[in-house]
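Design job #97: recover the sequence.
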């Protein structure tokens, strides 16, 4: 299995869980999206492209300030996530939002089509420097590119550590294939991106500058998701398709043991699930 095949498997899981993801994950990410939109500062009449829009966490925040004369084009590879976004936009009466299924590394828009490009945790996992080049191409002169990415994901590493001893040794063919895909993506990331947060932020800045952006800034911020108990965290994380499949195929005793180990690991690493932090950086740059 190559990385592109693995990514499509992963995207299918986002589509499968789109409604649950919107209900259980989006609220935890809304503070990050609000901060992103503050930095983006959308103006009336602007045409904004959002890459990896998901169920529209940031999209519906950008829509009101650009107004009826403006446009927000929300792209994603997951048709399920875009379907939820479109429903939410309809319910909000946001007629200036257009959703399109699209790979963020190959944007099918002409040069100078947008005044701003943004992404809330939606920069593609593969060939993301190509997304930077595409963002630069579709921006008007003087346009801006603003996005958020994880600076580090200690909480995911803790989850993986606690979960590993309890995974089923006899996975279904579907889960076995998905496991292979997830490992391919993890190996790809290890081989192409620095693991140290400082180096990773610098790596991103250099990639933006190489794409042609000027005035590049990397702003680091910490958010507190507010998990009150391990069960809150599990409710959040099991809205991802891969984790949900692993949980579903665990036996009852394995689930109980996993939950206990997760609580223990969180306490050892962070002082408890209540102390978990989302460490994020916001990158911004200008064309021209």
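Job complete. Output follows.
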């Amino acid at each position: 299995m190559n990385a592109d095949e693995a990514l499509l498997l992963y995207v299918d899981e986002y589509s499968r869980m789109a409604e649950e993801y919107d209900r259980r994950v989006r609220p935890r990410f809304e503070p990050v999206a609000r901060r992103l939109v503050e930095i983006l500062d959308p103006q009336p009449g602007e045409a904004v492209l959002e890459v990896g829009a998901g169920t529209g966490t940031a999209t519906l925040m950008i829509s009101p300030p650009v107004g009826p004369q403006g446009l927000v084009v929300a792209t994603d590879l997951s048709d399920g996530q875009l379907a939820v976004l479109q429903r939410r936009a309809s319910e909000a009466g946001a007629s200036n939002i257009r959703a399109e299924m699209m790979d963020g590394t190959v944007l099918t828009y002409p040069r100078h089509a947008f005044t701003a490009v943004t992404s809330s945790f939606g920069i593609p996992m593969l060939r993301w420097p190509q997304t930077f080049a595409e963002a630069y191409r579709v921006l008007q002169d003087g346009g801006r590119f603003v996005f958020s990415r994880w600076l580090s994901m200690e909480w995911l590493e803790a989850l993986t550590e606690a979960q590993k001893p309890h995974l089923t040794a006899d996975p279904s063919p579907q889960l076995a294939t998905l496991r292979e895909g997830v490992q391919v993506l993890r190996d790809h990331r290890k081989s192409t991106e620095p693991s140290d947060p400082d180096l990773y932020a610098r790596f991103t800045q250099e990639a933006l500058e190489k794409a042609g952006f000027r005035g590049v800034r990397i702003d680091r911020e910490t958010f507190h998701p507010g998990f009150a108990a391990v069960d809150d965290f599990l409710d959040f994380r099991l809205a991802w398709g891969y984790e949900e499949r692993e949980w579903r195929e665990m036996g009852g005793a394995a689930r109980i043991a996993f939950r206990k180990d997760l609580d223990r690991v969180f306490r050892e690493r962070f002082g408890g699930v209540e102390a978990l932090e989302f460490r994020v950086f916001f990158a911004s740059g200008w064309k021209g």
